[in-house]
Queue: 4 jobs
Job 1
Amino acid sequence: MPVESFVLDPAFIEAIPKTDLHLHLDGSLRLQTLIDLAETGKVELPATTPEELRLKVFKDSYQNLGEYLYPFKFTTAVMQTPEALERVAYELAWDNINEGVCYIEVRFAPQLHINGKQDIASVLLSVDMGLRRAKAEYNQSIPVTVDGKPEFEYGIIVCALRKFSPTYSKYYERLFNLHPYSRERDLYTMASLDLARAAVQIRDKFGIPVVGFDLAGEEAGYPAEHHIDAFELAHRHFLKKTVHAGEAYGPESIFQAITDLKADRIGHGYYLFQVPSIKDHEIVDKERFVRDLAGYIADRRITIEVCLTSNLQTNPRIGDLQNHAFARMREAKLSTTFCTDNRTVSNTTVSREIQLAIQAFKLTAKELRHIIVYGFKRSFFPRPYIEKRSYVRGAIDYYDRVQRRYQGAEAPDA
């Protein structure tokens, strides 16, 4: 066996401990669950079987970001009760557990699920209940003979939206009605600040592991500066910060995320190296701007949550995966971690994302180990730092034991 051929073994990839730090709850429903909840909630779907839904809605390829977002019209519609939210969260936890993912950070926009039956608190409590139940079931079942396999852990990240309209949910409808003469940009500021306050209060009152604050949605024309107040509040209350940036817009969006919003991590970051995408006329030396930006991100170890399949689907012009910006990220020695984005919408898993990366970029065993470890190290782990260190150390030690088992040699030093 070639010295590193074991890294391509699906059994090895499944066996190693893994993380998913960019995982949308409403993009990761089981299709049968979507069908069941639609029937219960009287939501009309374009198809009534998982197979038909794959053909008509949840495709393997999409033409653009708009087509990629189309399925969320149905997933958010069925997630409007505490029971639905708990079920989806519970099943998502088990879907990850069953492929060897030890730590996940589940993100979603609670304000999309507010209605006459539930507020932000009940939404977060329902999601936490589902995740907590799965965690308890699995952790209590781990045999003591499993050689130090890490327990399953999770955190919750709440997402503010760059752009919304009254039709998005009852919350947004009410916001527009209360402030009919306000500029839309001011409403975006109000909504994100409201969410940040609620996230901190609910975390502190109920002990829910709300670990991060995120900004998602359309980047072009909807800059980060509208949400500075919300991120400043999150920062003051020790909520970690991640921002969707460089997913469908240029390097300036990433710059705004790390300067205006003090982002600890960047979601996607695909356009980091796209010099032609720079729109700001004040940036004269665009090549240098990108070089300095990448250097700053590397030096500060601002981790990029890489979502390979999702990026291929929302940016079809990438073509072959080898053309993905991850190749440049790798050359620049950036801190990166592989994520699914949306397990159902992208029809992927963490293991599949890793397999794709190994094949497309010819990752060595050492490189793969570093990337997996970054997922644990740069997580927004919900417990004190000392406990995080212990958890990460356990994950690294377990990874090395798995590697020795498959490699038949000593694993690299930590």
Job 2
Amino acid sequence: IAAGQFNHSIDLQGKIDAMNVVYAAPRGQGGIVKAVLVKNGDRVQKGQLLLRMDDVVQRQSLVAAEQQISGIQAQLDQANSIYERQQNLWKQNIGTEVQVLNAKTNAEALKSQLASAQANIKLVKEQLNMANVHAEISGTVDQVNIKVGEFFSPQSAAMPNSGIRLVNNGDLKVTVMVPENYLGKISVGTALKVILPESNNREINTKVSVASKYIENTSRSFTIEGKLPNDKDLRPNQNAIVKIQDYTASNVISIPLNTL
């Protein structure tokens, strides 16, 4: 028996969670799926194309908008030519000043119409791009529950068993629900030991990075989180036993209960 440091821990059930879990969703109203370009387990980069939807209407609108620009551009070229000729004639004292002003006004009006049509082209192209669904984060495709021919919308994308789910396993955490009677003993910085039963009881040491200030009514508990290292063997929703250090004392004599 000798004096030393005594640490007491409580054992609670926890789980591994990903800080970045994203459900891919269309930016517009959605549409009929024409192509799914990824499958479960694929690695994707941020901005990568995941899915294409029907865009026939948007493409027709783009063709019409481009044709409109071509027509306005031709009219503007003619109006500018007429304006230059009227200016040259006016300099030679031929014609009237009103003719010059009218030609200038017509050219400026067509120039304004062209700018408006060009802005409309950008809008139509943006609407066309809304038929494509891109990855918002880099990570792994964890779920693909959408097929060609189905209707895909922001509402269906948010449903648990629908759409495409992306997980970034490079940014993981362990989450634990802690009974409220430990509220004053556990805070940010408290030591955690994470034990993974399905991984040969592998142990990971970390600290509390987030301690919730909210206590749930039903369970009378609060949530804590601890960051985990980047490891390809760790999986979101993997079960874990978390030992939380709730008391420590130095220079004390401690005797095992079994010995007593």
Job 3
Amino acid sequence: MARKKEIVAMLLAGGQGTRLQVLTKDMAKPAVPFGGKYRIIDFPLSNCSNSGISTVGVLTQFMPLELNSYMGNGNPWDLDRVDGGLTILPPYTAGKTGEWYKGTANAIYQNIKYIDQYDPEYVLILSGDHIYKMNYNKMLEFHKEKKADLTVAHINVPLEEASRFGILNTDDDLRIVEFLEKPEHPVSTKASMGIYIFNWKVLRECLIRDEENPESEKDFGKNIIPMLLEEHRIYAFPFEGYWKDVGTIESLWEANMDLIKRKEEFNISDKSWKIYYRHEGRLPQFIAESAEVTDSMISDGTIVLGKVHESILSSGVSIGKNAKVLGSIIMQNAVIEEGATVVNSIIAEGTVVKSGVTVGHEEIEPGKDMITVIGNFEVVEEDTKVGGN
């Protein structure tokens, strides 16, 4: 019998991530590289570790091989524990047939036995596709103080973006009086971050009731929260730090650029709240005298002979002589050959941009999806021009 835990974290990491297009063709969205040496999954896992939450179930489904391999036994995040630690929870066969996770709520429902073995007071629900640093203990303290059955973390967003989120309306005590999933005409800017703390007994009962309802979409935002709103105490926990949902190409590119342009707001090198990651040891880095590198993040194991400005280079990247990389993300082991130009683009792992090629467009407009993306292990041949979007 597992030892009783006060809180268990459940990390939803099974989404297909179709809006990330070719970047998630062969891997789950949380495994997508970020910031040169990290993966998206590193952020919620590091937040758990830094918050002292040592029992984390990671629910995987779509193309999980690379993600599972990357997480391993949880060692980089101090989650390789005998009692608790990191557990990968894929869909499994029950009875004669197996069943895919049908929604966020159903995914937790299918893992009730996993949670029950720890008999927790509270369950923390997290998403695997957000970039942020957050002390979950502060949210738990708020939850206890309010004697809540459910606490929803929220962040204020611009009114013009509010229709993309679940929107909360609260009273003066931050008790949620209305929850609208992606409303067409939002009247509040309090957006749900998809981070929830539930009293486990309450959530368990709701999951069972929801599973029995054939009309339900088995979703937290559409079904579970509205169900709780009628008869339970639900509160909104205000979060004021940096947070980015990186579900689209543009938001992923913006979040990477924020590491350079908004360092004071989101310091990824802050030693008081480290973002841990799996690495295979330090590799030598070479930046030639002829190179010009400004306002960029250059990982270990890179070779830079050309110009790099406001860009992020992952390990093993090679930038040739007279090549230009501007406002771009170059992922592991990609090669930008001599004289090539890459601007406002994402070049995925192992791709080769041949000599003289131009990729991307210098003029981009926010919200216009003009970031150019080249998928994994492609070769962009000479005399090719790949425009914006």
Job 4
Amino acid sequence: LCRAYNHFVLVNIFSKAYSPKTSTTDLGIPYMTHLETTVSPEYTRGTVAEVYEKIAADIEAGLPLLNDAIYSVPKYHFNKKAGYAFATRFYLYYVKDDKSNYDKAIQYATVVLTENPTAMLRDWATVGALSPNNSIRATAFINVSEKANLLLYSTSSSWGRIHGPYGLGEKYTHNDMIANKETCKTISIWGGYSMLYFSIPSYQGLPKVIMGKMAEYFEITDPVNDIGNAHVMFPAFTTDEVILNRAEAYTMKKDYTKAAADLDTWIHAFTKSTNTVTVESVNALYGEYSEATGTGMKFYTPKAPTPKKALHPDFTVESGTQENLIHAILHVRRILTLHEGLRWFDIKRYGLEIYRRTVYNNEITVNDELKADDSRRAIQLPQSVITAGLEANPRN
């Protein structure tokens, strides 16, 4: 499972998203199945399809071997629920023409969520009632006793400092304009921003809009000089993500009532809303905009942003209810996983076009754009890897 997960992350960063149309020829990554025993070994990248086949084989071989009893703290390892959560995400990304992998995503998500998903989701009301102080709320968010956290790991990172409530990283940040127009302060299926349990604090003089999830934990390596290494604890898998993944799989299987039911379960954990999410309510909010009735939502443009971005996936998403539910799921997943890095994978999977913009005095200037077919969606390999002989990603 560890091998499968690490290659899954790498292939989704350094290769194109899985596509039923092109993955048999798209460049993949080397899949490491044994330790190196020679100097300067030669590797080939293979294809994305080959990498996904090997990940699937490792997942299916690994799941039956998981045994929570061998760990003193199971959530710091691939425990059973974490394994099935990973399988859910993987099969959601592994799009097959016959849609059979959506069945697997649903099956494995249900193992994690049980027959009572409400009891498995994060207690957002309790966490949201804590002080918005970045360390207090963030420490509770990644607590090992939190039932929603399925796999936690430590990583060396200055994220908690640069993207915390400090005067660092202000030029490139999740700011008020994005929050108000696209993410956590927009109207969604729960209503408005005031419905969130996890309120977003304001910091005077800072342009950042922060959901306090990952604070910094400092490891002192030299007490005399008070120096050391910065770390964050990262929630690799949570039950909240799993239920949204299942809702997406239901949507792609056209089981719209069950998809809406999962969204309804999730919003009542995440927010104070008393709204009932139905297929009709999703269509009314995310459907085609009607000026006459005031229903629906306009599509995003870089100078008039909204949460609804045009979809350009390599698989079929039908206009109407299916597309509207996907827009809703992409929107709420973007809010749920804010600062966690998963949005980039949704951008790649659904061909969402993004723009580099400069905002000054409320004026927006577009400096660059990343179209659905832009080769930069596959991040370039490190120069040291290219120098060692591995084929570089092509560029337009």
